[in-house]
Fold each of these.
Amino acid sequence: MKILIVDDEELSLTSVRRVLKWRGMKNVEICDNGRDAIRIIREDNFDIVLLDLLMPEVDGMQVLEATKPFCPRTEFIILTAVDDISTTVKAMRHGAYDYLVKPVDNELLFLSIERAYERKGLLAGLSATVAFEADGIPPAFADTITRSAQMKSLISYAQVMALSGNPVLITGESGTGKELMARGIHRAGPAPDGPFVPVNVSAIPATMFESQFFGHAKGAFTGADSSHAGFFEQADGGTLFLDEIGELPVGLQSKLLRVVEDKTFTPLGASRPVRVDVRLVSATNKDLDRACREEKFRVDLLYRLKSAYICLPPLRERRDDIPLLAESFLRSACLKHRKSMDGFAPEAMTLLARRDYPGNIRELAQIVENAALLADGSVILVSHLGGGPEAPETPSLSCRTLCTLKENDAAHVRFVLDALGGNRAEAARVLGITLRQLQRKLAEYK
């Protein structure tokens, strides 16, 4: 068993290491600051990390958040003087196995380490039963195009968590591939042949929530000429994917929580409850922890949805994948538009690899498809990618005309929409407003 102790107090480091070695745990390393700990944990293969929370500059929570996604099979045990329920819950949500308050009873520490090591072995055994392709991507996630070590680590973690059948929460910026990950989890789960039902929560009117999610009996309300199976019943024996879960109104969250907990509901107008066996996967580009603090999202619902947690990195943090993705999107565009192309000019690929892509993978796909349409030869050139002299630029103060705030607002909304190819969801994110607010602005500005 390989163990790392991270603590800024020398006395704590030496005393814990001495106790562990007395117990027969010989392979124990120490680190006295969070910054070095992140590097060491990522570079080495530790079984257990004993982590203090209160450290200067980079604290233990930051270490946990920065390393657990890269090292899903390393078990973290928090050793700290902070005896606080909210901090404990946050640490567990970010992947900590246990949370022990100093001064720690030695036998309790030994028991926690032994159980964490047993859990690591169990997860390794589960993942060992899964067939992996040559590039390290499990067959269930074969649609994910990546050579990124971080993405492969997340996929490995998703593969193991998928086998449990527990709810999974996927976060990340718009366009990072959350639904693709959800479909992979479904295929890797215990019921891959069951239905996969994707639902955009933000598109469901509040007045239709119960009918859409739980269904209704014939005659339940005016216009209900026949019975209707809701999303939960449609997904019975499979996976229900709730995209944009952060947009669910607070008043409806308690109704969803009850079904998540009991797997039982009564359709509108029906006299008997319906029981379903549904695997729930949720996704959002919002900070749900912050939404909970602002009382815009129920904490108990978040805990239910977040049995396992996957945060997808933006495309700018996995630039090595851009050439692979671009080539794949070009092949798809050629098939779609019946064109034959050889690829990208070197300078065109260099330009693609340097961009930041606020719209992430979705934006890259649109850029490549547009370039394929514009190209009149067999190679994509820089001039086909936009961003040159013809590309729209944000007007400077010196070239703006005198206008009202409403006119200026409308012009900026139009510019952002044009720059993102009309993608309203991504435009709303860039503008810092909700999709519904953007839709109201579009109606107002005609």
Amino acid sequence: MFKAKLSDPSLLKNSVDTISELIHEGLFKIDSESLYMRAADRATVAVVDFELKKDAFEEFECDEETKIGVNLESLLDILKRAKKDDSLVLELSEDESRLKISIGDGTKRDFEMPLLSISEGEVPETKQLDFTAEMELKSSVLSKGIADAEIVADSVLFKAEKESLTLVADSDSGSVEAKTGKGSEDLMEIKVDEETESRYPLEYLKKMLKASKISDVASLKFGNDYPMELKFEEPGQIKISFVLAPRVED
């Protein structure tokens, strides 16, 4: 049995909106503590790790671990029908073949969507990654930097020095550079073991940064020509993180 009620539907709606940019069908795992998903996109360029904790819900019942496969775009279409002040109830049908979604308290609207049979598949292991640059910064710094870089290129170089982060993009169309230093209100923490730089595709970064709706602070980690970890979190409630493969150029 699984049934849960959210008084703030945007927590799930914004998360699914972001995840569906990378993954079309997903397998949620539900236990007594949270609703969770870990998956890779088809090209295995990015891995997403999502958790909506029990404490984020107004009500949460799950008497045994359950896995539900859903079409994320179809789920998002339903979640978009929920407005800010609506409540959202998720419940499995009795035969556990459909997900029931109720929106609203006064006038209640009920939706049902079929569950999909989805195998867990192979997801690259990311826990053992060893980063040389780690920092916490305003999500807006990354959003602006990515938008600027997109004017001239399709990838961006992240450069970390002892007390600063620089985003650089260049092509035949021109170049752009954005630097944020320690002491700025935009860069709260930075730890750099050695000067570090790595290039990443803007296409993926743009999709991942949609998760900034969850938190205006991002945790960023990367290494030299090495994967990046980008995490947005409201402690005790919700976490969504990504690991993105670098674009290594000859």
Amino acid sequence: MTVNPAVLNSLPNDLDVLRLPKHVAVIMDGNGRWAQQQGQPRFMGHRRGVDTLKEILRCCKDWGIEALTAYAFSTENWGRPLTEVDFLMTLFERVLRRELKEMIEEGVQIHFVGDLQALPKSLQEEIDRAMVATQHNTKIKFVVATNYGGRREILEACRAIAQKVQRGEFTPADIDEGIFEQHLYTKGISHPDLLIRTSGEMRVSNFLLWQVAYAELYVTHTLWPDFDREAFHKALQDYQQRHRRFGKVK
């Protein structure tokens, strides 16, 4: 395996470059609580959370991690106060427009997964523009789960497969994991090796239910806006102490 010298120069000395996760997923929990602790409105936590995500994305790129998936907005988040939902939709759109040039320059290939048709039309247009503009970038794959729900993803895959069986495109006996994965939102994207959840909650919250079957889980009480490079470094240290057997015994 050839290792980029730039990665070796930036990677902390106590991390083994050959044992890094290829794909990290993050549940970015605690933005609202962080803001409340600061005596600020909840939307300030979301703004700060965007800065944290940008820092962790750059960290992944610098350290040679191939993909980062962020849980930005779940199907259940529509149940939040309308003002907060509206703010988040506007924030996503503004951040995309503002950061696109830098993402192109830094070699970020961005993907959005979820039920994107339910998003505001203007946000859908920014998403399409960003995915097209970065589709040939190769430094890091950045996956943003927006209006995403793991159960909905699985149900939609089952419906799509059932329709193809009805049309005679294949039989029930043909259906295997490979065919199933081709009908998920994350088609063509590798499974996460490490799933990080901030704020101390011990659940996956309907996130990547199929894809994290063998991911290593790391939970920290740190709230997302405070999850900096040092905190990410600790998560990777913990990951490198795990023995991933995938149900087997050596």
Amino acid sequence: MLRKLLLPAVLAATTLAVPVHALDLSEMTAAEREAFGEQVRAYLMENPEVIMEAVRALEARQAEAQAEADVALVADNADALFDDGFSFVGGNPDGDITLVEFMDYRCGFCKRAFGEVEKLLASDGNIRFVVKEFPILGEQSVLASRYAIATHMISGDEAYKSLHDALMSFNGDITLATLRRISETYGIDSAAVEAKMDDEEVTERIRATRALAQQLQITGTPTFVLQDELLRGYLPYDQLQDIVEDKRS
């Protein structure tokens, strides 16, 4: 990343060392370009801190541009994000803040984030939480998501939440035998779920979520949407709480 930023940062830094008109390289002779290069090098050798200052300024500018683009993406896809008609809605369904998570049951950072999100929902009490089943880490991920979605369709929110929580806390291989054992613990009819999990409607729900993720330029898990803001990657409880408070203020 630093190497990608270095050239534009150096060019930005050189504006401090030479007159603006001298930066039009196409107007320079070969001798002038050589002199210009020597001047830039000398300035940067004397003031190396300028490079990092320019890199930080460029990174900040790029982050701001990305944040603005993300806000537009969220606004353009708001219905599919917040009210698609099939994703699980937990926390406080009538909460004043909505948190959406794109997750995968095989994702280590999703498992890490699980406790942080649960803590946030419990401590706040006024957050609406939407789960987007986004299996991207192989066949076990797809198996788990199909089973979870089918459970939601067959047995409703409470059964889904129990299964979801158990899978987020589970660290072994996910097989049908694993899913059956978890189902028995919570009184879920595994035979009915298995009969449903290859249904076209289950496939369509996963397809719709993947299409939404593509629209939002989401390529990894966990990815959160908090009100109008896209948050890519794992976030600890304190940071999530600060963002929630900022949205309310």
